[in-house]
Specification:
38% of the residues lie in helices and 13% in strands. An 8-stranded parallel β-sheet has the order 9-8-7-6-5-4-3-10. It has a two-stranded antiparallel sheet with strand order 1-2. Helix 4 packs across helix 5.
């Protein structure tokens, strides 16, 4: 690979390093999500070429993205690139249905084993570096899921496994079951995390800090709301972002494509955008780069997952990775500007617990 223009972090409590910006590929292949544009295969190849040229080594996808077409696009690119398989860390996910059938969904042993074989075929590889559950499955005992992941590690189909979109008690239960059963550890949590979504700090990230689980934030720019492209009381462009795409039909709004009206009347949101703009101008950076840099500098974060539909967009986002940093004062100002009210019992836990701190028991210190 070319000389890296990115920085690298360990992938949770594992022995491997990944670039601190990961390329997410939900926009590769045909669309089955609320997105205004999809990258054609040729554009996807250009994005992956540029990403790796800049030193990125971490690619994230999911079997459900484009109903398998995202994985196929990556597999086709792997056949074209001169990079070695060992140059890359490839991640995918399992949970949602790809085909009709009452058992073609969930985190059962049957569904996981079937879907990993199909993912390997689409990706044109014989092992996956990071295999992730895409969402909690109420129908399957967590012991069954974890044992299946452990078996896949032992037989060489995957190297590590992680989870995504879980709440605090679910993540702690996963950790405790793994320890009780003597299984390979969970190394990552992929969770929505950005300046407009900080609730994971209350529970899930406390578990991650205590257990050495690396966080992989998704939707780091909140569907475009943290790019500075929108103006107050100005209707967003329906072709320029996921937020604009759902604006005319807000029933389609989702976590990665929120309703613009939710923020348009929110003074705190516009004050945050003004602060991001001020910090960006001070550093000679863009608002998206500052939004991403805030995430990169969070100690619990291993890598930030970005999406891109053009090389230009990719290059701008990759400019957050290396060579500069936000000051402690700037990090604090962004923390305060984006803070959310701490409800009971969190407010009481944070306030009272920090009155009694044992430096030899730092794993239990709350923020």
């Amino acid at each position: 690979m070319a000389e890296a223009k990115v920085d690298f972090n360990f992938l949770g409590k594992s022995g491997i390093k990944v670039s601190n910006i990961c390329i997410g590929t939900m926009t590769f292949g045909k669309s089955n999500m609320n997105v205004p544009t999809q990258a054609t295969d040729d554009v996807a190849y250009e994005i992956l070429d540029k990403y790796t040229e800049l030193g990125g080594n971490f690619i994230d996808t999911a079997d459900v993205y484009g109903e398998g077409s995202s994985e196929k696009t990556i597999g086709a690119w792997l056949r074209r690139t001169s990079l070695l398989r060992d140059d890359l860390i490839l991640a995918t996910k399992v949970r949602f249905p790809l085909s009709r059938g009452v058992n073609n969904v969930g985190l059962s042993r049957r569904h996981i084993v079937r879907n990993i074989e199909e993912s390997l075929e689409r990706l044109n590889i014989y092992y996956i570096d990071l295999y992730q559950s895409h969402l909690w499955d109420n129908a399957t005992p967590i012991e069954e899921t974890l044992r299946t992941f452990d078996d896949l590690v032992r037989c060489g189909k995957i190297r590590y496994f992680g989870v995504s979109n879980v709440c605090g008690w679910q993540l702690q239960k996963i950790v405790d079951k793994i320890e009780m059963m003597g299984l390979n550890r969970c190394v990552t949590l992929q969770q929505q995390y950005n300046l407009l979504c900080r609730q994971p700090e209350w529970e899930e990230f406390m578990v991650c800090e205590n257990e050495g689980i690396g966080v992989l934030p998704w939707s780091p720019l909140k569907g475009g709301m943290l790019t500075g492209k929108f103006q107050r009381d100005v209707e967003p462009d329906g072709s320029g972002s996921r937020v604009g795409y759902v604006h005319k039909d807000e029933s389609k709004a989702m976590q990665s494509a929120p309703a613009f009206s939710k923020y348009n009347s929110d003074d705190k949101y516009w004050e945050l955008i003004d602060l991001l703009k001020s910090i960006a101008e001070k550093h000679g950076k863009t608002i998206p780069q500052v939004s991403l840099r805030w995430l990169i500098q969070k100690p619990v974060v291993s890598s930030v997952i970005i999406g891109a539909t053009s090389v230009k967009q990719l290059e701008d986002n990759m400019g957050a990775s290396s060579g500069w940093s936000l000051s402690d004062e700037e990090m604090t100002s962004l923390d305060e500007a984006s803070s959310t009210p701490r409800l009971y019992p969190y407010e009481m836990i944070w306030r009272k617990s920090n009155e009694r701190v044992n430096p030899f028991n730092r794993s239990n210190i709350v923020n």
